């Protein structure tokens, strides 16, 4: 799922647009609520990016004048096919055009968005035609350029210049001939930064539980032009409370449309099985909510009592109040990228014996001669292919744990490259090569301990923080089993929560990972160390990847989608603002 990436505390980690502070017990996302929202069609938020194009030193294909160029923008799909996204206008008689037509597209952090640009010289006889109607095969091809959207937005000025090559004629050539340059400039829509901060409370909620009070949370939805109700944000769950006051939620104006558009606010009693009970609903616009706050009054919830044309409802005693209301421009994830922040990828791989003999096909570490990646390789590739664009040097720390190196004791954090002095490898392929080499140079052992690798990652993040480096670290842990050092891992995570670090844990194989989900704080319980210290924020995302070999990587991408909001939560925690 995509994300809003505005400077909204980590509530977006569950559903985009909701502000939370993971230092609060009831403030972390929970899996059942997310499943409930997904079942109702929630697709998440994103950044709107406007692309502007210009070119220099184009080929001159006209005899008596200069070329009349037009650019066609495509997205390159997974299967290599091209999908046309848009066309610029035709600029007459120019080898250095600056096109006026912009293209607006959604930027998704968790996906590699490959773009292809093709420039054509439009023949004079077609100048009066709508560019959408032009047959490209009838025009002169001037050159082609390609890049990813991430390569553009990670530049400090959000501008990328790429060579135009004669792509249609250079297939199979080692060095394509250059035919000028294309410059792509990305600008974030300012409306995507305008956010309304609301703090909501309720009074006299109904009890749906037999032996205790309700566990309420709010879901805010909008209605599309087609009449479809789409959830856009939620609060945290507050346990055992009929007069809850939630942490602030953040609503994106761009996403809602306008302050006058009606919103549906529903209050539910949380149930761990995902079948949440409706406590009441209300329909108000942002303008209405602002008026409620100004007047200091509440609005009564209602519940539908009949469906169909009549749509009768019953007004309840319970009320919704707006404790605070404010509008502000929030810093976005892209603002921090533009000010020089990088995401640094790290990986730790489970080499415990429960993975099975790597030489046998039923092992999770089996290297298929056909080249088909195993579960570990697939997770590395799918996370790494996204994060590599946000790391300039592409030198990635890589560790293994739970194995016995040659002539040594069992190690719970060894350098994957075999070195005793440094842990970095070059690029994603460097990780893959070090991983395959390690399979031949270590003996699988056990038990499964996370503490040492988390401590190593935290040490790197701490050094970076001390040196005032603009870096945020992501540690990917891939494991096949339940950890045996749960409390030690909690201690390490509580300490690491203060640092510029997020941790993705991917469970592979068929083990029962239920205990592992404790680390993800998905039920709202904050992690607590043996000394009683509570984590200031949630930095762990966990998912069991049951079927990665069959291409089920959507869960990996959903994990990646949470990283921008975790970075923003850290920036708020440290009170760090982007500098340009």
TrEMBL record:
Membrane topology classification: Lipid-anchor
Domain C2 residues, every copy: 28-162, 178-302
GO biological process terms held by the UniProt record: cellular response to calcium ion; defense response
Molecular function GO terms recorded: calcium-dependent phospholipid binding; metal ion binding
GO cellular component: plasma membrane
CDD domains documented for this protein: C2A_Copine, C2B_Copine, vWA_copine_like
Main location: membrane
Database matches in InterPro entries: C2_dom, C2_domain_sf, C2B_Copine, Copine, Copine_C, VWF_A, vWFA_dom_sf
Record-linked SUPFAM superfamilies: C2 domain (Calcium/lipid-binding domain, CaLB) (SSF49562), vWA-like (SSF53300)
Location of the protein in the cell: Cell membrane
Keyword vocabulary terms for this entry: Calcium, Cell membrane, Lipoprotein, Membrane, Metal-binding, Plant defense, Repeat
Family designation: Belongs to the copine family.
Protein name per Swiss-Prot or TrEMBL: C2 domain-containing protein
């Amino acid at each position: 799922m995509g994300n809003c990436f505005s400077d909204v505390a980590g509530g977006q980690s569950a559903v985009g647009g909701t502000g939370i502070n993971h230092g609060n017990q009831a403030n972390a996302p929970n899996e059942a609520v997310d499943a409930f929202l997904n079942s109702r069609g929630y697709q998440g938020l994103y950044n709107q990016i406007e692309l502007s194009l210009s070119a220099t030193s184009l080929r001159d294909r006209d005899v008596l004048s200069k070329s009349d160029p037009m650019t066609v923008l495509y997205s390159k799909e997974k299967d290599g096919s091209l999908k046309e996204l848009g066309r610029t206008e035709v600029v007459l008689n120019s080898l250095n055009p600056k096109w006026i037509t912009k293209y607006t597209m959604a930027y998704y952090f968790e996906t590699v968005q490959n773009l292809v640009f093709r420039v054509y010289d439009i023949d004079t006889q077609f100048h009066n035609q709508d560019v959408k109607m032009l047959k490209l095969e009838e025009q002169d091809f001037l050159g082609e350029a390609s890049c990813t959207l991430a390569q553009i937005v990670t530049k400090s000025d959000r501008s990328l210049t790429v060579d135009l090559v004669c792509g249609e004629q250079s297939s199979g050539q080692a060095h394509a001939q250059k035919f000028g340059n294309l410059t792509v400039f990305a600008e974030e829509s300012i409306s995507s930064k305008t956010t309304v901060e609301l703090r909501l409370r309720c009074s006299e909620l109904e009890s749906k539980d037999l032996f205790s009070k309700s566990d309420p949370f709010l879901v805010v939805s909008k209605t599309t032009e087609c009449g479809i109700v789409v959830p856009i944000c939620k609060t945290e769950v507050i346990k055992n409370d009929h007069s809850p006051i939630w942490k602030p939620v953040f609503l994106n104006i761009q996403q809602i449309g306008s302050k006058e558009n009606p919103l549906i606010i529903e209050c539910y009693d949380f149930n761990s099985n995902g079948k949440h009970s409706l406590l009441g609903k209300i329909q108000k616009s942002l303008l209405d909510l602002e008026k409620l706050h100004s007047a200091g009054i509440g609005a009564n919830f209602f519940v539908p009592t009949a469906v169909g044309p009549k749509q009768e409802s019953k007004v309840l005693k319970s009320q919704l109040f707006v404790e605070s209301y404010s509008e502000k421009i929030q810093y976005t994830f892209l603002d921090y990228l533009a000010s020089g922040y990088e995401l640094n990828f790290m990986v730790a791989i489970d080499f415990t014996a429960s993975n099975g003999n790597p030489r046998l096909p039923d092992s999770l570490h089996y290297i298929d001669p056909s080249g088909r990646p195993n579960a570990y390789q697939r997770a590395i590739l799918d996370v790494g292919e996204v994060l590599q664009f946000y790391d300039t040097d592409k030198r990635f720390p890589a560790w293994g744990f739970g194995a016995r190196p040659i002539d040594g004791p069992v190690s719970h954090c060894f350098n994957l490259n075999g070195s005793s002095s440094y842990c970095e490898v070059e690029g994603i392929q460097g990780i893959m090569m070090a991983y395959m080499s390690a399979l031949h140079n270590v003996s699988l052992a056990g038990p499964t301990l996370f503490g040492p690798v988390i401590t190593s990652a935290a040490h790197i993040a701490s050094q970076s923080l001390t040196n005032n480096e603009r870096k945020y670290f992501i540690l990917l842990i891939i494991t096949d089993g339940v950890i045996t050092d749960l409390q030690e891992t909690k201690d390490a995570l509580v300490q690491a929560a203060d640092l510029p670090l997020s941790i993705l844990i991917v469970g592979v194989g068929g083990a029962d990972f239920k205990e592992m989900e404790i680390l993800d704080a998905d039920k709202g319980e904050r992690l607590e160390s043996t000394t009683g210290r509570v984590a200031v924020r949630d930095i762990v995302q966990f998912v069991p990847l049951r079927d990665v070999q069959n291409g089920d990587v959507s869960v990996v991408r959903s994990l990646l989608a949470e990283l921008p909001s975790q970075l923003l939560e850290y920036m708020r925690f440290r009170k760090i603002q982007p500098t340009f």
